[in-house]
């Protein structure tokens, strides 16, 4: 009899575990967040939601965006967590995002939330343009440090500046779009014409200019601040300059993919992404996060960067992207040698 | 045929036309392998071709507009976008054909437009396929949407899918893209001339002189085959970049651009040219040289009238192979090309940078043309080649000539230093802590897990891919070649198979990879499941390197008499048994050669797999590319050298294994 009872308990136990296993929802999450951070993100999320399992699909921003667009008619992702807002705007304009106001979204800096109600995406953290300046090489070449974007057009920097190609790099595009927003179309292109005379070459990736500046290959690299801080921490003789006119930026953001079969779980995940806890988690990699007052200073990060961030018009950037890139290509890519 | 008719016939073997079970098996297998080539090559290429004609166009007639007066009242006048454009000439026809991401603002249609005015606007799609944006919200229905002026300026028309030549028109009217054709051709021709001349003298020295250490030179000359084509680019950055060790040698010129591409191309194409020319120079008839000597021809004249004509087919073949390698290479111009645009990099930029798949397909079609031409001319020239060596020929043997031997030795040493030097620079750079500021040695650059590109996992993946490609590829290729070579009849089928087998050689890796995206990443394709897995990488790599493997197998099989099949048939042995028991063991040297060829190429290939790898299947060669792209140049060099050592080790194992196995299976060759 006793044996029978224990058998029944065992059976009951297996049944409960089996049903618990069934209750576990799997979410396919597309992301461009650094691979080393993903495990930490999932772990923190699972502390409060052990029943939702995240299957990550990670790649660089361009490739993930291309993948999502290619799957336009047959979406495979449930949630996009950590993709450039400009990319998410592309998806939004294809009607691919499910609008949802996550619980607690009102706590975020409005700059980081889609203007529509309910918002189609919510921001996580920002990466901000900056100039990496190699003090050792610059001194050898007798350069004076620039303080503004306009300074960079000075003939003394001819051949000593390097920046990413906006056609292949998101960082490159946010630079170009910020110049057009700050200086206006006409002045912006005039500025880039002058800058082009000083550019040694355009790189494919956004972090390479700063790494090349860190290695002294080209003394001045237009890149993003966090990359500069990292290289500086590794011992490169870098100074990170925040140009006085203001700096362009883009953010990583989160959205629910329209047509997901797991809407409830997806909403839970997005709810989590706007919490203070999640924003503290983003802060390890990013100096600027969406939740005000959370960010702790990151070592070697330039001062005054937050105030220098321009009032970025993401809609302008997304709607004019194709036209801007075409114009840029016609002006600067056509010349095969910049030097 | 009725039952009665059959009953009336006397039973007995059919006299003619009946296929034996063997024939059916062989034809069946051949069809399966041919199907493999169709699915892995022909269909994807077709998908790509049709993609290049898929355009996006804003159909202005699909939109209707109404404008109110200042009081916000509409008078019922409806105007289509096409009518408005005809009236205002806001957009030229070329403006209407855009990419998938194209947008057109509409305020230009209304000359009086001001975002402050109280005038209201209405807009709607006339068909269900019409699309426009308000801000970034997509509107698809055919209902009227009423907007105030300030919102109306945020309206953007979106293109719809169409078919046509618009992509090609836009390609040829974009100077930045169009220039690349000129750049690519120019670079390829220059690299070909330099490589073939250098390789010719190198091969000449090894075959026609009596200098020392020929074996060592031969080994060094083959080394570049073992590394990805972008590795020489990295070495050149360390040598001639702005912080380069010997940048003074360039006299202020920049290594980033055509100079770098040509030097790097010479490095990675050298072994290919060397092998072909060396084969051509290895055989020659001594009687021709004796005749020349007795006619008192000067050595120079003998060289031009005897040596060069004898090697002309080799030279032409080498030239086309090098041309093809350079024009289709993507890694090297990506690393060291700077602002110098070439076709292969354009494909990458269009697809990865801008997600403009259609334009990527257009550039691919453009790139395929010179590649196919070069390939076709080469095949044509090859088919004209006649035997140089007849039964009466006397093999030529070089005579020692102290002065010439010394000159050749010096020349080969220079080439050897060039090749070994570039590799040594990469290894050196990989071990330096932080070039040029901290020159202490460290293994920091081997901590791949801290960089982009997939870390050590990608190295393991690469080895997996290489092994799988070597095993599966050799099996498919050799079996396919056997079926084509040895099956009876079925001429059309065999000719068609031969054609499919030759095709991959003419298709650049970038094009193949892109074509795979279009074909396999289509949810409607039942083979969609292999997208993003290791399987698609294996399929792609096997197909990419099919031709050379196939030719190697065919050459080996041609040496075996067809009598074997007849004997087996008369002994009532199934052909498959013959294949396993006789053909494979006899052809084992060729089988091993194919497998090492596939292994090495799977380790080094970048172009074909760069569009196909997934986060779970990152590869070492791609990691080199991505780490360099992110600016981690030293780790990229370190990973590149890991590929070199792995391939070198594989070669050594291959050599030892061949020796052991050959002793066992090839004893019949010696008596």
Automatic annotation (TrEMBL), chain A:
Pfam families: SBP_bac_6. CDD domains: PBP2_Fbp_like_1. The keyword Signal applies. It comes from the Bacteria. Residues 1-20 form the signal peptide. The keyword Disulfide bond does not apply. This is 2-aminoethylphosphonate ABC transporter substrate-binding protein.
Automatic annotation (TrEMBL), chain B:
It comes from Leisingera daeponensis. Belongs to the binding-protein-dependent transport system permease family. It comes from the Bacteria. Residues 181-378, 459-654 form the ABC transmembrane type-1 domain. SUPFAM superfamilies: MetI-like (SSF161098). It is a multi-pass membrane protein. This is 2-aminoethylphosphonate ABC transporter permease subunit. The chain crosses the membrane at residues 24-47, 185-204, 216-239, 259-283, 303-327, 359-377, 408-432, 465-484, 496-519, 531-557, 633-657. Keywords: Membrane, Transmembrane, Transmembrane helix, Transport. Gene3D superfamilies: MetI-like. PANTHER family: POLYGALACTURONAN_RHAMNOGALACTURONAN TRANSPORT SYSTEM PERMEASE PROTEIN YTEP, PROTEIN LPLB. It is found in: Cell membrane.
């Amino acid at each position: 009899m006793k044996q029978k009872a224990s058998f029944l308990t065992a059976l009951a136990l297996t049944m409960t575990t089996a049903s618990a296993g069934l209750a576990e929802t799997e979410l396919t999450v597309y992301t461009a967040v650094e691979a080393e951070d993903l495990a930490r993100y999932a772990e923190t999320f699972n502390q409060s939601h052990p029943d939702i399992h995240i299957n990550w699909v990670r790649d660089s921003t361009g490739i993930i965006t291309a993948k999502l667009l290619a799957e336009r008619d047959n979406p495979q992702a449930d949630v996009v967590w950590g993709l450039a807002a400009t990319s998410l705007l592309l998806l939004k304009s294809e009607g691919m995002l499910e609008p949802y106001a996550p619980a607690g979204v009102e706590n975020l800096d409005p700059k980081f939330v889609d203007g529509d109600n309910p918002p189609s995406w919510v921001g996580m953290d920002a990466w901000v343009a900056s100039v990496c300046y190699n003090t050792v090489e610059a001194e050898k070449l007798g350069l004076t440090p620039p303080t503004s974007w306009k300074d960079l057009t000075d003939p003394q920097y001819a051949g000593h500046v390097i920046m990413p190609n906006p056609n292949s790099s998101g960082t490159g595009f946010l630079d170009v779009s910020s110049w057009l927003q700050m200086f206006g179309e006409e002045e912006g292109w005039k500025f880039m014409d002058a800058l082009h005379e000083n550019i040694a070459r355009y790189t494919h990736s956004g972090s390479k200019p700063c790494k090349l500046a860190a290695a002294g290959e080209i003394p001045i690299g237009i890149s993003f601040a966090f990359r500069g801080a990292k290289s500086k921490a590794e011992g490169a003789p870098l100074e990170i300059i925040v140009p006085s006119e203001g700096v362009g930026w883009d953010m990583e953001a989160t959205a629910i993919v329209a047509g997901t079969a797991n809407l409830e779980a997806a909403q839970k995940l997005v709810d989590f992404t706007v919490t203070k806890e999640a924003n503290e988690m983003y802060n390890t990699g990013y100096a600027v996060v969406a939740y005000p007052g959370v960010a702790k200073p990151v070592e070697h990060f330039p001062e005054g960067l937050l105030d220098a961030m321009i009032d970025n018009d993401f809609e302008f950037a997304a709607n004019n992207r194709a036209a801007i890139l075409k114009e840029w290509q016609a002006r600067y890519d056509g010349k095969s040698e910049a030097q | 045929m009725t039952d009665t008719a059959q009953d009336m016939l006397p039973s007995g073997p059919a006299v003619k036309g009946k296929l034996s079970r063997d024939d059916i098996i062989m034809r069946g297998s051949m069809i399966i392998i041919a199907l493999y080539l169709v699915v892995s090559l022909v269909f994807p290429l077709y998908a790509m071709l049709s993609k290049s004609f898929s355009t996006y166009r804003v159909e202005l007639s699909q939109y209707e507009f109404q404008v109110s007066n200042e009081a916000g009242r509409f008078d019922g006048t409806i105007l289509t976008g096409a009518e408005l454009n005809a009236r205002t000439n806001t957009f030229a026809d070329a403006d209407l054909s855009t990419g998938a991401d194209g947008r057109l603002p509409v305020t230009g249609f209304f000359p009086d437009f001001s975002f402050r005015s109280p005038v209201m606007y209405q807009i709607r799609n006339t068909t269900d396929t019409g699309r426009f944006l308000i801000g970034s919200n997509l509107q698809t229905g055919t209902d009227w949407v009423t907007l105030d002026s300030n919102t109306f300026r945020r309206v953007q028309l979106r293109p719809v899918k169409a078919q046509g030549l618009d992509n090609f028109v836009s390609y040829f009217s974009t100077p930045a893209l169009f220039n690349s054709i000129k750049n690519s051709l120019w670079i390829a021709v220059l690299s070909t001339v330099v490589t073939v001349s250098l390789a010719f003298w190198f091969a000449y020295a090894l075959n026609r002189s009596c200098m020392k250490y020929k074996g060592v030179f031969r080994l060094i000359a083959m080394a570049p085959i073992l590394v990805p084509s972008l590795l020489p680019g990295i070495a050149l950055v360390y040598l001639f970049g702005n912080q380069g060790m010997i940048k003074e040698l360039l006299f202020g010129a920049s290594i980033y651009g055509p100079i770098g591409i040509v030097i790097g191309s010479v490095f990675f194409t050298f072994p290919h040219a060397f092998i072909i020319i060396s084969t051509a120079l290895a055989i020659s008839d001594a009687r021709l040289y004796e005749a020349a000597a007795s006619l008192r021809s000067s050595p120079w004249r003998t060289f031009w009238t005897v040596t060069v004509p004898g090697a002309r087919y080799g030279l032409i073949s080498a030239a086309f192979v090098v041309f093809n390698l350079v024009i289709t290479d993507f890694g090297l111009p990506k690393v060291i090309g700077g602002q110098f645009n070439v076709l292969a990099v354009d494909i990458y930029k269009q697809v990865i940078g801008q997600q403009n798949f259609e334009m990527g397909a257009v550039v691919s079609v453009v790139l395929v043309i010179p590649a196919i031409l070069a390939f076709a001319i080469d095949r044509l020239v090859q088919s004209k080649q006649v035997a140089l060596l007849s039964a009466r020929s006397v093999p030529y043997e070089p005579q020692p000539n102290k002065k010439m031997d010394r000159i050749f030795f010096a020349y080969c040493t220079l080439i050897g230093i060039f090749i070994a030097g570039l590799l040594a620079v990469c290894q050196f750079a990989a071990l330096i802590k932080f070039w040029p500021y901290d020159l202490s040695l460290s293994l920091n650059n081997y901590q791949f897990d801290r960089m982009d590109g997939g870390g050590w996992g990608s190295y393991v993946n690469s080895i997996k891919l290489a092994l799988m490609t070597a095993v599966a590829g050799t099996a498919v290729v050799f079996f396919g070649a056997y079926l084509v070579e040895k099956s009876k009849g079925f001429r059309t089928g065999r000719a068609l198979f031969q054609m499919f087998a030759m095709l991959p050689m003419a298709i650049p890796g970038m094009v193949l990879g892109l074509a795979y995206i279009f074909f396999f990443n289509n949810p409607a394709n039942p083979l969609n499941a292999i997208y993003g897995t290791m399987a698609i990488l294996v399929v792609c790599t096997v197909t990419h390197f099919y031709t050379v493997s196939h030719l190697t197998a065919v050459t080996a099989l041609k040496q075996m008499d067809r009598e074997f099949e007849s004997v087996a048939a008369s002994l009532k042995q199934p052909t498959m048994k013959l294949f396993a028991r006789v053909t494979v063991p006899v052809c084992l040297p060729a089988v091993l050669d194919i497998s090492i060829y596939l292994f090495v190429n799977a380790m080094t290939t970048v172009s074909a797999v760069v569009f196909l790898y997934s986060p779970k299947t990152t590869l070492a060669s791609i990691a080199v590319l991505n780490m360099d792209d992110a600016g981690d140049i030293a780790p990229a060099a370190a990973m590149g050298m890991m590929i070199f050592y792995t391939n070198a080790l594989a070669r050594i194992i291959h050599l030892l294994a061949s020796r052991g196995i050959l002793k066992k299976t090839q004893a019949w060759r010696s008596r």
